[in-house]
Amino acid sequence: MMSTAEDRLAEALAVAPAPVGAKALIDPVVVADGVAYVSGQVAFVGAEGPLLGKVGAGVTVERAAEEAGKAVANGLYRLIEAVGSLDAVERVLKLTVFVNAVDDLIEQPEVANGASRVLLEVLGDRGRHARSAVGVASLPLGVPVEVELVVKVRS
Questions:
Q1: What would the pLDDT profile of 13-70 be if each residue is shown by its tens digit?
Q2: In the chain, what's the furthest Cα-to-Cα distance?
Q3: What DSSP string runs through 36-54?
Q4: Count: domains in the chain
Q5: Distance between CA 42 and CA 7 in Å, rounded?
Q6: What's the CATH code of the domain at 44?
Q7: Kind of pairing, strands 89-100 and 58-59?
Q8: Residue 15: closest CA among 66, 74, 55
Q9: CB-based burial of residue 19 (10 Å sphere; 0-12 exposed, 13-18 middle, 19+ buried)?
Q10: How far apart are the first and last CA of the chain?
Q11: Which Pfam families does the entry link to (predicted)?
């Protein structure tokens, strides 16, 4: 028996992120005209705080790729909150991965592969996507990776 996308998501990351507080100044997901825009997600897991640091200075590319996978899994959980089920996903359109990196790091695509792998594992062909992987000087809280998603959803 084939598992559902939610089952595969739970295998990738068993713990959904905490709800966004009512005082937040953003919506974690905005759906407009059949497209869901998932706000930037980091790799919070349960009560654990996120990993902190720069890729290339204390955080390896491999570890950052794992964090990217957790961050995109958090984004998928947010998407479930907004649209009810991953069955509503027609296709991931775009993944953007921001990498908090030392100046000379060039492995942003390898970090982003961690997020791409999770999308493909969870959603199959619906998880295929366009992607940007961008090195930045810093990210919120000092995390090494943040991801954003743009997803086509069924009305």
A1: 888 887 777 677 899 999 999 999 999 999 987 667 789 999 999 999 999 999 999 9
A2: 47
A3: EEEEEE---BTTBPPP-SE
A4: 1
A5: 21
A6: 3.30.1330.40
A7: unpaired
A8: 74
A9: exposed
A10: 28
A11: YjgF_endoribonc
